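Hi R.,

Here's the chain you asked about this morning:
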Amino acid sequence: MVHLNVDLIAKSKNHFKKKRGLSFPEYLKTLTHLHFSSKNIEDIGDLSMCRNLTVLYLYDNQITQISNLGFASNLTHLYMQNNNITQIENLSNLQMLSKLYLGGNRIAVVEGLEQLSELKELHLENQKLAPGEKLLFDPRTLLSLSESLCVLNINNNNIDDIRDLAVLKELQHFSAADNKLHIMEELEDVCSLWPQLLQMDLSGNPVCKKTKYRDRLITVCKSLEVLDGKEINELTRQFLINWKASKEAKKKKNNTHMLPGPLIPYPLSNDFNMGQGPHPGHIYSHASMQRWKPQQSLRMQKLKIPMSGLHSHVAISSDICSHVDA
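And the predicted structure, written out as tokens:
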């Protein structure tokens, strides 16, 4: 088992040899960066002597728990992607932390970040989740990040709903590719609450196959510059915005003209030749229907069908009239 501690730092040729003029304890105090990626490290030991540490590289190891970092109050960048971490914890003292990389772990719930008011970037892509499981978000953590978080990467985490993320109003870069987002209206609602959004990647989601998917998002996201890796032309955006406004204005006008009015009985007439016969959809009284008598229409006159045979030849007349209508 490999432990990250001061002894491992002392044995590292990439670190201690650079400052041979200093004693080892003095050297540890000067350290700002530690590079221990791909070293089969399984846990983090006592590094409290590295009090000025600002960047820690621990990606591609076997670490199962975030621990013993409470001393690192100056830490701004933490790279722990591709480990075996199951829970986000023990980070409350890292109040200067700006970028946190935790992709490729086994995290099921995004939590424990309530004290990180300076966090700008959070990378959580490709979690190794159990079958049927999806990445979830603690509302308290999201609310605490609402004023600071600018970059969020949640690619490939079986996510089918992002409504909880609407509170992240400072978001500028959002990546949620290869998830299960499928409701276009939900996506529009959330994105409309991100006024700073510049880049978004939703490729690989079912929603991308929806009609007018790209056009609708460009219209809603007024500041968006890149969608799914493709730049957005400003002229295209303006055209779509104008087109949508015109369409909505036309729809509103049509709805105004189609306001329902009072139902008025259609005046009945015996004169079929004047086009005043009964019309479907109008209201007729029983008395009016009793007064109505079939008259010989112009069409029947032209076809030389006597009125005396009208009732006995209804089927024939109907066929002939249908043929003439055609």
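The chain has a mean pLDDT of 82.

Let me know if you need anything else.
M.
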